[in-house]
Amino acid sequence: MHIEVTEKKIDVEQAMARLSKVDSGAVVVFSGAVRPWEGKDRIEKLHYEHYPEMATKRMAEIVSESVEKWKLTDATVLHRVGDVPAGELSVVVAVSSERRKNAFGGCADIIERIKQEVPIWKKDIGERTQWQSERN
User: Fold this and answer.
1) Rounded CA separation 129/37 (Å)
2) Least C-beta-crowded within 10 Å: which of 20, 71, 110, 136?
């Protein structure tokens, strides 16, 4: 199990390489990128802040609970903080399991709980897009 909160770019291959694949028939990876648009508003980047001690501790608890519940063989979570430009990854969750059903369930469980329970906050930074009619 590996948990990391970092200001560095996230590499999906790095996350997958950290997984123990012994006795695993399935590897599932979720990667979340910063969208360039939110509705009609252009997003340049997201700024992430966190409570360092609690964020890492809570992520480790979530991953540990999911490993047990979903019978995962391993899990890795990488989450960025600071400024993350549109198009770059802000989070990666990678899990391995003997069976795909467990891997999909465990990966979904981890990312949903991280979004709900971990003290990491984000702020949209961008310019408001103004749509104009061709008549103007």
Assistant:
1) 9
2) 136
User: What is the C-alpha to C-alpha distance for residues 105 and 101, in angstroms, rounded to an integer?
Assistant: 6
C-alpha closest to that of 81 among 108, 107, 119: 119
CATH of the domain at 92: 3.90.1170.40
In-domain check, residue 99: yes
Quote the CA–CA distance of 130 and 134 in Å, as a whole number.
13
pTM here is 0.90
Q: Domain range holding 44?
A: 2-125
Domain count, the chain: 1
CB within 8 A of 56, min separation 6: which ones? 3, 5
136 falls within a domain: no
Rounded-to-10 torsion of CA 78, 80, 84, 86: 30
Distance CA 44, CA 46 (A): 7
